[in-house]
Amino acid sequence: MCGIVGYLGTAKAVPVLVSELKCLEYRGYDSAGVAVIEEGRLRVLKAAGKLANLESLLRTENAYATVGIGHTRWATHGAPTDKNAHPHTDSEGQIAVVHNGIIENYRDLKDELISKGCKFASDTDTEVVAHLVSTYYHEDNDMLKAVMTAVRRLKGIYALAIMNVEEPDTIYAVNHHYSLTVGLGDNESFLASDSLAYRQYTNQMVRLDQSEIAVITKNGVRLYGFDGAEASRPPTASDVNAFVADKGQFKHFLHKEISEQPVVLRQTLTKYMPDVNKPVLLRKADTASSGSAPSAGISLTNMQLRGIERIQVVACGTAYHASLIGKYIIEELTSIPVEVEIASECRGRKLLVNERTLTIAVSQSGETADTLAALKDAKSRGSFTLGITNRADSHLAHLTSNLIITQCGIEVSVAATKTYVAQLVSFYLLAMFLAEERDAVDPGRLLELKKGLMLIPTLQEKILGQEEEIRQAANKYKSVQDVVFMGRGFNYPTALEGALKLKELSYIHASGYAAGELKHGPIAVLDEKVPVITILVPGKVYEKTLSNAQEAKARNAQMICVSVEGDQNVHHTFDTILTIPPVDEFLSPLLAVVPLQLFSYFIAEALGKDVDQPRNLAKSVTVE
Ligand code: F6R
To answer: What's the mean pLDDT in 475-490?
Structure first.
């Protein structure tokens, strides 16, 4: 949440900062701003709303400064207005600060600073940092000491970039349990929350440690702990490819990313399961452990894998829904008990993990603060850890030596789609891998499932070929106020994910339920105005799910289903039928979600919503 950038060099800073911010807009788009130092003066330019608003403002400015910091905001403290946009300055306009995270003790600090005469101009927690650094700086004109003294007084987790007009050749960056990287070019340096931001300029980077201050000039970077001890780390080559966001023939990234799902799955399957007759290739290659960049694969020994008594999964949002399906898959194939926790609910609790537990953190960005905190907690309690992420360069990837990297490429649209199915397929592969290592499943059944998994990309393509029918169905329901999604077993979490996609894309209220749970209360909301979407796949819970749908129909709800082609039972019960090809119930979540993603997309599009950047959201949620 929020993106920080910086530049020092010989080029004009503003265009570089804007190009960096464009790569980070996924982290928040409530406002954007830059601060540059020009002719011994600090110039702060900022605008509420998307980066495009700042760009319009900058068009009339001719800033030629070669040093600056910038920010894209997801509002936490203070409304998303011009005045609350970053950068923030001290009372004299000498020190500028951009910030990611939350300063938890900002109220106390603000009172203290006001009593000393500081004039506050915003409602943010960030502004205290500018005044605090300024106060300490004016004690003895030592900026590094001022930053160090200030950060020792801050509570919370955060990242900062700070400039002082009296030191126009330096940017001070602070990382406290966040992500911040310095890019080193030829006579120029960059700063960004995500190295993707400057990847087009350099691939040499230094990642800041957990509690570290970086003093950056155009010739390099010096690193200090909060205790003042200097650290030294050579730059590493970033393994992130320069990324150009391109919608191709599509109107929205979301639609493009939904359409890419078969390709993404093929890539993941080809990498980890090139031959169904051989074991799943999740083991880390022997050569992979050297060097500092994280590498994909599992390094736990067969003995360690056999000794695992429980699996704890931690995740948020869509990744949490993928994890709930992961629980069903792993339990079915390995009989290892699996618990799934919403990562933020692990905070302040005793996480019951130990050295016979495997804790799995699932996060497409690999930067979600709640998920990282839960993983760190589990690790400190002796649990084995494993990460499933789409970003090999993320914080999560650096926290564990057991990694499954999904092969999605960057997901631009804020609502997760292709990374969700890639997380699901990672769980299938992991369950198969564990089942093989522990001899936990009948080899005939395993081979049947592996073959079924290999067919999924082609079956998804068939669903994508039915887009027009799904668009028409979506048009029928675009004016409703509330929607209920329900499913059982493997597709209960599909119902949760279907509801989340509809909510975040169209802003229509939607809830997902275990179909058997409807009668325990939620059924009270049903009447002829409420569509109920049932996920109905032949298998162990088919009849019971159909009965639950009948119960909803008896309350006059508008009935929609996702069912398999050729199912004759559905015509009596449902007004609208979205179909998927016949599939093993075990693998069906990989198909059932696709019509639901498209359904939500077409409704949002018909309503004219901001599909790729829904209001109030951010792609990377780095506050707790
Ligand atoms: C919904 C969505 C979010 C994320 C959640 C976790 O479409 O994208 O619910 O799934 O914020 O994000 P990651 O996976 O980056 O940890």
So the answer is: 97
Upstream peptide bond of 262 is cis (omega within 30 degrees of 0)? no
Nearest to 295 by CA among 313, 305, 311, 282: 282
What atom in ligand 1 is closest to the CA of residue 318?
A: 10
Q: Round the average pLDDT of the chain to a whole number and report it.
A: 95
CATH class of 3-237: alpha beta
- Rounded-to-integer distance, Cα 149 and Cα 470, Å: 59
What pLDDT is attached to residue 293? 65
Q: Choose which residue among 252, 254, 364 to substitute to test ligand 1 binding: the one with the highest number of ligand atoms within 8 A of its C-beta.
A: 364
Shared fold status for 3-237 and 254-459: no
Sign of the dihedral through C-alpha 553, 559, 565, 571: positive
Beta carbons of 473 and 599 less than 8 angstroms apart: yes
Q: Find the range with the poorest average confidence among 285-299, 406-420, 507-521, 568-582.
A: 285-299
pLDDT digits (tens, 9 = 90+) for 303-332: 999 999 999 999 999 999 999 999 999 999
Provide the residue ranges of all domains of the chain, joining segments of one domain with +: 3-237, 254-459, 465-606
Find the mean pLDDT for residues 551-558.
97
Residue 245 makes CB contacts below 8 A (sequence gap 6+) with 22, 253, 410, 412
Cα separations in angstroms, 201 against 308, 346, 428: 45, 39, 38
Of ligand 1's atoms, which has the minimum distance to the CA of residue 620?
15
Does position 2 have pLDDT exceeding 80, yes or no?
yes
Closest-lying ligand 1 atom to the alpha carbon of residue 423:
14
CA distance 484 to 492: 12
Catalytic (active-site) positions: 2, 619
Measured CA to CA in angstroms, residue 347 lies from 96, 220, 324, 368 at distances of 33, 38, 19, 13
Ligand 1 shell residues, CB under 6 Å: 316-319, 363-365, 368, 371, 415-416, 500, 504, 620-621
Out of 363, 497, 600, 622, give the residue to mutate to test ligand 1, the one with the largest number of ligand atoms within 8 Å of its CB: 363
Between 2.60.40.10, 3.40.50.10490, 3.40.50.300, 3.30.565.10, what CATH number should domain 254-459 receive?
3.40.50.10490
Q: Which residue's alpha carbon is nearest to atom 15 within ligand 1?
A: 365
Rounded-to-integer distance, Cα 439 and Cα 426, Å: 19
CATH topology of domain 465-606: Rossmann fold (3.40.50)
Is residue 310 classed as helix, strand or coil in its secondary structure?
strand
